Amino acid sequence: MLNSCRRFSKECKINNMIPVLLIVIPLVTGFASFLINNGKGAKALSLLSSVITLVLALVAVYSLGSKDLLSYDAAWIPALGSRFSLSMDGMAKMLCLLTAVSVPLVFTATYKNNYNNPGSFYGLMLLMQAGLMGVFLSSDALLFYFFWELALIPAYFLASTWGGEKRIAVTFKFFIYTFVGSLLMLTGILYLHFKTLHGASFAIQDFYHIKLSHHQQFYGFWLFFIAFAIKMPIFPFHTWQPDAYEQSPTAVTMILSGVMVKMGLYGVIRWLLPIFPQAVLKFDHLVIVLSVIGMLYASLIAIRQDDVKRLIAYSSIAHIGLMCAAIFSNQQAGLTGVMIQMFNHGVNVIGLWIVADAIEQQLGTRKFSELGGLAQKAPGLAILLVVMMLANIALPLTNAFAGEFLMFNGLFRYNVWMAAVAGISIILAAVYSLNMVQKIFYGKTVAATEHAVDAAFNIKFSLALLVIVILVLGVYPQPVIKLTEDSVQAVLAKIISIKVQ
Amino acid sequence: MNAIIVSAVWGVVMMFCSFLVKNKGLYRHIATFGLIILLIANFLNAWGINIFDIDDHNMLHFNNFGTAFNTIAIACTLVYVLLTGKEVEKYGKYSAEYFTLIFFSLCGVAVLSAYNNLLMLFIGIEIMSIPLYILTGSDKKNLKSNEAALKYFLMGSFSTGIMLMGIALMYGGTGTFQLEVTHLQGLGPGKTLSFLEVTGLLFLFVSLAFKVSAAPFHFWTPDVYDGAPTVFTSFMATIVKAAGFVAFIKLLQVKVAETGIAVDKVMGINWQLLIVILIIATLLVGNITAVFQQSVKRMLAYSSIAQAGFMLFSLFSLNDIAQEGLLLYAAAYSLATIGIFAILVKMKDYTFEGFNGLAKKQPLVAAANTVFLLSLAGIPLTGGFFAKYYMLASVMKTGTYVWLVVLAVLFAAVSVYYYFRVIQAMYFKEGDATTEEFSPSFKFGLVALAALIIAIGIIPSIVLNLFYF
Questions:
Q1: Does A219 reach chain B within 8 Å, measured CB to CB?
Q2: Is residue A84 classed as helix, strand or coil in its secondary structure?
Q3: Which of A26, B141, B232, B340 has the fewest CB atoms within 10 Å, measured from its CB?
């Protein structure tokens, strides 16, 4: 890679600017959007910005080959030893792509929704996107923390301003939860900072080389893990999540559940596993047990829900629980599965939210008890939803199958019983998913659905795109595996070397 | 030396203005002008140019840290006068006198930032505090203001008495008022402080803890801050409090850290543990009580105690990061608090409900207020984040009491609760916030201040470079 860089030094420079642009474009357009009062202008600007970001992300992923590491480094706060350094490896590329795909999709699917103060709404959405990109790209701990918060604060304001009835209390709970977590992480970052050589670096590479005693590893592990566990969320840190998803405006919920939860998973893979491998090997059992409990618990609650949004929220907890368990199984299959599933879960869950939003916008209710027979009125929507739901259950030929299969494979190698218990959640997923399809779309039409019409073009269009992704990746998941295999190897190498010792 | 003389002289100038200048509206402009001169004088000091060459018999020692703090204090006062100078005119007939008192108080701050002698410490504290007793009671017809002034005066005198006692004991122990006795008497590493000196130091410790309102010496704070006219609370809670910390850290640095004795044991007293107890008590009292307040003004009083708890970390760690952090904290905390008080003065209703719906009526003011509150809560991208960050980092660097940092961040999360109540009221609650007129220049000032706070939050070096030049 160095050679090619020397030969095409100019080209390399431009390519290395891509990570910066992925952050700067949404940031700048986000601020610009605050100044626009008219709704159409704000929508158009934000859609344009997000499409440009998507194109850039695609360029980063495809035309450059998966082996290249794009990185950018500049001085930021020399007094603290913190640098503005970004790097983009396979996993970062994959998650940036997910972020870049989700945002325009969300904008398209909710194009017809009208918000008060549209300029601020779209501005905050773009700022949140900038924060998410930053989290996935930064290779400096303090910078990582900055972006971690930058993603959170717009989400807080979005949900509190445009959310449902109970929004203020609920989003505040969400904010406090995650803020406590991130402050603990900041403590951990500071602790590690003074353990690096000369105590003067925040670079992730320097963090990787810190030698910590067993006890230090254990404390550090929990400081970081609680932050990530709250963000994912896994049991018992999940209580903010269903309320926050339910009360947030659906466009925000899509980003929260599709992309933001990946921050937690990403954090575990990028920061926790390589820095605290001994602690990971000590606590893996505990974390997996918690995750599995969360999976079953969330699935059981999902079955009892009467609200589309809450059902999807609990189903999301169950899926994230599986991903977390698979990460801590420390098996190659498991981690590869997580990589695939991080992308796929994002795609699927956004699809489900789009359907939920379409129903709520048109019929004014999200309750199963008030819905029924919608398939007769809206056949297009019904077909698309069924595909989404099948993907949610991880049926073969849908994208989630490969991921879940690999994750269960990893978990199975770790512990057969654990895998068996976790496997129950697949059955439960089928129960609540099909239950939802049946209650909303089949049966007799009721008062609310009597005069329903099929979903608008923009909704169907975005859902159709998602369905294509679902089917393509379901048949051929290799691109994602290839993109991220280096990252998986790098993480596992460290864990395995500790295991051997 | 420049700042001490200029501030005292300009105080006198302001006093003369009260009967020479008939136009009341001019006073604040004269004060602004004076502050700018003061700032320039202090900069000259930093560049080594002394306008007044007075032999201070080594009782004052001007170093980078003191001068940098002075710059921050004067700059914050300038911001304060620019934003709220107009409000000062509302209390009493002779508003020029209030500006006089502020200048005298600044003179005390300048003495404190440079003292090298315990008498100077005493004089500095007194020059700084006595104007405040008057300012607290400046709303003469208001019973609460009178009560607060009397309370403040009595409690203040008490702590002064304790301080004098401490100074006397230390004099008994060393035979000199000079702070750095080690240089004079050749006491090197390994020598201990005498019994009298340690007792004296304890007394000083208590009285300074009183000045910075650290629990359990904080009881005067909420009543005084609440009772005093809001404009003056703003000044007391920010610049004056920070100056108390500067005096405090200097005392401990010389007496505890630099005497060559291990930091944690001086004469059988574990100073670090003492400060740790102080920190925990202060954070606990400040944060928990602030949660239950109904009035924003009183909440800010308790929050100032909580913020003091964070500043106490610098006394705990006493290292280079602590010094830098204290400067940054003084700047970030003062600027944000001055901003909030400037808005609060204009509110008709000081309760949280009074802020309901402010964002709809005054979007710009609400946005600026949000930045100030986020900064106080220590959210990244604001100055308050780096202030807290430096404090935590200074403790982390000592490598001991790491759990204290965890405790501190949990309390920081508690503080988010009460700061965000104001944001929630402004943005998410329906209501009709009644305010006085906001002039365009006032709004511009607020936005500029918010921008400055964000700038500090992205590049903290703009404040810290003051320290090094």
A1: yes
A2: strand
A3: B141
